[in-house]
Amino acid sequence: MKKSGKFMLMILSLALVLSVTASVFTACNDNNGSSKNQYSVSVSDYDTNKGTVTVDKSNVDEGDEVTVSITSKDGFEIKSFYVGTNDVTQDLFTKNGLAAKNDYTTATYAFKVYKDYTVRAEFQEAGVNGNNSLVLSLGFDYDYGRGQITVDPDRGKFAIGESVTLKIVLNSNFLLSSLAVNGVEHVSEAKEGENAYTYNYTFTINENTTVKIDMAYNIRVIEDVKPEKFNEAINSNEWVLVDFWSHDCGYCVDVLGPSLKALCRDNKIGNVRVVKLELDSLNDRSSEAYKIKKRYEVQFKYNSDVGMPFVVLFKNGTPKACNVGAFATSATASETPTIEWLKKQGVQI
Fold it and tell me: Would you call 255 helix, strand, or coil by DSSP?
């Protein structure tokens, strides 16, 4: 019996590090038949003598929300919390109101999953947070899948009245659409950094400073998407126009492609995000891109194996209309018919 007990302790010790690799569902389809990516959320190694860290679910579909629960044991309190490499301690403390309660023993944290994440918490002796002369007052609310935020000075505690600078680095194809400090919009005051994807903003800390940042898709940029990212793309904006195209299609390359690019560049297309899904060739029926195109041809009762160009307009991820063939006979002439067609579908332009 003693040997058996030691063996069980060894198993429990090994279970401190949880890691699950990402997997892609190819057989689990949504109502439209499209495949979904599934990602894992795991708990990294931490001192179980000082506290516990759990997630409500470890394997989720892309975009689903996961909640992490952190609880310290007697004599200890939460010191820091990380989602991946992101230190979100300030956000955790602010959203749970720990500073106001002067109680750093229990907290929860929810976030949406767009890739594999490992969460980690650190604990320390109780009383350190509350006895420090600095306050834990800076909270973030933003989508980690669209950019990253760092703070200068880079630490978790700030004094009331202290000046801090946010550095916002956007991922490609995103723009800074909102920067609210204590509920007041300051996006127009953010200064562009080293490039178009970097912004800096300096402000003063108060007792309950909160920062909410929104990073929206840049609708002036047309993005090429891969079949495995198709479902994410059509759900990324209220209105999404998908251009199925191929190098074999002269009209796609010479007319519609340049026309859509000009409409986006000149901001004439309203709040419509345009993405392109390339077919290797018009007759490549084995490709995933062709299968996706065929799905919507069937749905809209368009019977052709090679009809190009083929565009589908989505609203909140649901296919609303399609257009097969040419809008017009030249890149310049096709702009007006494209806009008129979008207006008929309910797009505000």
Answer: helix
